[in-house]
Write a structure and sequence with these properties.
The protein is mostly helical. The chain contains 28 helices and 7 strands. The strands form 2 sheets. It has a 4-stranded mixed sheet. A 3-stranded antiparallel sheet has the order 4-6-5. Helix 4 (66-76) crosses helix 5 (86-103), helix 25 (535-548) packs antiparallel against helix 26 (559-586) and helix 26 runs antiparallel to helix 27. The longest helix is centred in the last third of the chain and has 28 residues, at 559-586. It is elongated and about 105 Å long.
Amino acid sequence: MKDLAESWDRYQRYLILLPQNPKKCFQELNPLFKWATDKKDSYHAFLLWPLLIKAIIFSWDNFKKLDPYLEWYESNFPLARLEIIPEFLAFLKSNYFLALFLRKPEKQILPVLQQELLASLNQVEQQETKAEILFSISWRVFWQGDLITLALLGDELKRLTKFSPGAEITKTWIEAGKAIWVHDEFDAARSLLQKAHQLADRKEIPIWKHLLFAFEGACFLLKNKPLGAEKALNAMEASLPKTGKHALGHFLYLKGWKHFLAKDFNQADIYFKRALQVLEETGYRYPFYLTCFALSQVLFAKKEFPESLKYLKKCETFAREAKSFALLFMCSLHQAYLAYLSGDAAFGKFFLKRALSIGNRQNYIHLLWWHNPQMLSYTLAKALEGNIFPNYAKQLIIRHNLRPSPAFGNISVNWPYRLKIYTLGRFALEIELNKQKIRKTPSKPLELLAILVAAQGEVEKSYVLDILWPEIEADNAYHNLETTIYRLRKVLGQKDLIKSHGRTISLDTESCYVDMWELKSKLEKIKKAITRQAGAEAFLLTEEVLDLYDEFLPGYHNPLVIYERNFLKKKTSALLIQCLEFLTKSFPKEVPFLKEKAASILGPEFSQKLAQNL
């Protein structure tokens, strides 16, 4: 017992040096471990074992080297024959837990070990040991995506930072993750990472620097800031010679992600496949399967659907086995996306419910290691449409500043637009900003906004001048226009919504809801439903159009609005006549009611045309 206690003291001093040069430590310690095992010297073998585990992990090179040491530990444990101090026993279990998680994260014993380690925190006295236990657990909790537990571990680590530099940097890391993932505080996350950088510089531990650059790059990618991401990736690349093979795989993954966001899918494909090859060689399974998920996204974007599904299934299977909420959330969201796009709404709804149930429970604001704005925009629009966790869906939309995807027809009043404009049946254009109606608005800015809406978001400045100031000299009229644009931006409270460039003025059509645009979107859907002979869909859309339709801004008399008002009425009438004719065979009992409702809305001229066609 005394011999082991003395060795334990020497061990503690040696442990401090290990992170700075883990490969050298491994080379020196491995022969000693083999000697101890050959001599059946269990005391010193168990003393050296966690040092070797840490040397392999801190080398960040090949985690498959852990396998023989895991086998040795499992064949020599429990330690009934050894009089081993409780501190060291907890330390052994902590390192076994971490090594097992890295190589076999699906093992059923891991949750049990995690609970045992948490319980041992009240039994061990040395703060360094407590910090090591929390460090090991936080690694698994991070990859599980259990942000609630991760935050609790971060709070516990705060008390231990003065006892362990590893605890300090892990605590800072967790706080940065909490800032970006939970609170969406990008600047706070960067500030915390800068503090961690300073600590890593003082301790001269290469793997810390590499991981911090990686985290910083991921933060920039999450916020879609390519220049910041490129700077972090360059620093990460410069750190590669001092780290191992896994660091290279990590770097390649982030490069692939950057190219994906830039829609350079060929380059993204190349980087992700290289990352997969490197990560498979390292044996660290979580990043490997995360890259499988990323590659499935790229292959889907390249329309290589069977291959995309193959990699997605790989990731989902692993996520289930390893009980990773985060990976399962991401896979389910993408599966919902695929199902909806392939026309399978039932499966789409199933996967979307599963994804948003996990995300809502775990409070996922950012998708941890991945961001695909188009997929997120589309699936969240479907969530609002189907009333699937609508409050959580709106929270994600607002936090990510997402825009609906017009290509998929995602124009809906349910989308949490900052600005909503109502024009149908309104004698004066109505504006709702942040759910509050704007009551007092100067007439000229409103007229300019009405012109932009009628022109589908963009109009020539000369045309606006002719409509609003026909009798004023050009210079004065142009000055009036610039003043009106300024006043309109002030009313809307967001400069980027109204853009003045060259000869045109434009309204950011993806950042605001306009009821007239939704009506047009539904009319296009009816047209496609008739082409596909989708009677039920056409019937429901017809009801929605009849509920939504009214004359476009009847109180405005400028020529562009009048033209759009007449055009919209003619288009709605013509398409409804065609649709009612199509629906007569499928819904003979319901069509008379639709005819009556349409006639009351569109007037006698519509009734006459309807009678001629039906």
